[in-house]
Amino acid sequence: MNRSNGGPPHRSINRSADRGVARSATGGDVAAESRATSDFLQLDPRDAPRGGLSDWLARQIRGAIADGRLTVGSRLPATRALADELRVSRGVVTEAYRRLTEDGHVAGRGRGGTVVVAVPQASTGSGKAPVEGAARSRDVFTAPTDLGTFDAVRAAAARIDLSPGLPDLAAFPRAAWLRAERSVLARLTPSDFGYGDPRGTPALRAAVARWLSHNRGIPAAPDDVMIVSGTAQALRLLVDVLHADGITRIAVEEPGSLGVRQHLRPLDTPPVPVDAHGIRVDALRATGAPAVLLTPAHQFPTGVVLGGERRRELMDWAREGGLVVEDDYDAEHRYDRPAVPALRALLPEHVCYAGSVSKLLAPALRLGWLLAPAAYRDALLDAKRLVDLGSAALPQLVLAHLMDSGDLERHLRLIRKHHRRRRDAMIEAIGECLPGAVVHGAAAGLHLTITFGEDAYDGSDADLATAALARGVKVHPLSWHTQLPHAPGLVLGYAASTPTEIAEGVAVLGQLL
Q1: What are phi and psi of 438, to 5 degrees?
Q2: 3-state secondary structure of 506
Q3: C-alpha to C-alpha distances, 365 to 208, 356, 460, nearest whole angstrom
Q4: Residue 29: DSSP 8-state
Q5: Secondary structure element (H or E) that encloses residue 492, with its range
Q6: Does residue 146 carry a pLDDT above 80?
Q7: C-beta separation of 252 from 260 below 8 A
Q8: Residue 474 CA from chain centroid, whole number
Q9: d(Cα 367, Cα 361) in Å, to the nearest integer?
């Protein structure tokens, strides 16, 4: 160590910084690092269309993320550095990064820069699905449906996925979830890792009761709540219990979810027509079914809300001995209308209520809840014991923490804004590319339905969905979700796709028509 006149030690200053060659935290050359990054992507602004530099740059970076050149966790060059490399204004780069952030592919990390956080659907570059995906997609929509149908559709390759049923997964609150998990683990005792109450952890049952009271107007106590592995398990438990009770028929809405009908097997599912006011209770009576499954807050797939008069008719039917199974699958997501009260809040002793976080956080969590009339609780608890002895405790405790801390409510406010912007982008694209289509159910939820008059399209919607998938765009044919003849239509999800992807996907549908 050098000392001068016995004074304090001093460091030798690297004067190379004065010559414009700064050193990075890892010892690398920042200027060289920026050049290496832009050289790696082979970005040439001369390839951009006139007046579309930001869109071009965002598209190039998005493609690099999709094909693996930029992996999750990679840091993008600083906006000023990349602008200098490309010889464009800094505003061009800033706008491109903003679009990628809005799409959920990158995120700002303060001093850590802009980081890749999610991979978009990979594009084949030809506007078509890969050959293997195309081969698999040829009959996925036209073949008879079975329990493997949805697995086949999810596995089919597509550059743009407009399937209904997913929220904005890129917006999953990873940081909040991690904080909650650390907090929960710090408080757990050894005994907490043992077998617990098959109804669910007391913490989550209490949190769900408060959540439902605040958000859905349902008066509930923790003992009313059973935690399940999503609505799918709730329906399977109900089917077993109802079947054991001698119930062999449960009416369903027409049109209505194909997936729900599959989960109700082996019960018979007579279809009951839905009109602009919801399910027709007179037609429900005519079926003679002792139970009915409904999506009253946002009917799937039409988006109709069960009207006041129909609710009164339905409650009269239930008081005469009918049982209502209420699937409240996406009621938190609304944009142009007020909240709709849950049926469970009006008639608790005649309504089995099922909900989950699949549309609020992510379906991968497999967390939901079931509130049943007292007459069915013991049987449902026995069925739950036999299935799995209770759902995993740690995710339950983390979810309870998110609910109680207010993080889940904040997340809901955030994704409502995301979903609304994407809903608006889809409606705009439909207006431009599908002028003959009629839009249904856009005021709430994560999807909308379009139908076609004969002058717009008189073919099979399954054939249209097949042709779209061959062009790399995945949608659901309306006929999938019907048991009776209907006009052709498509069910389109918008929440999990970016506005750019939505516009491109709808444009493909317009070209096919």
Answers
A1: -105, 125
A2: helix
A3: 15, 10, 36
A4: B
A5: strand 489-493
A6: yes
A7: yes
A8: 15
A9: 10
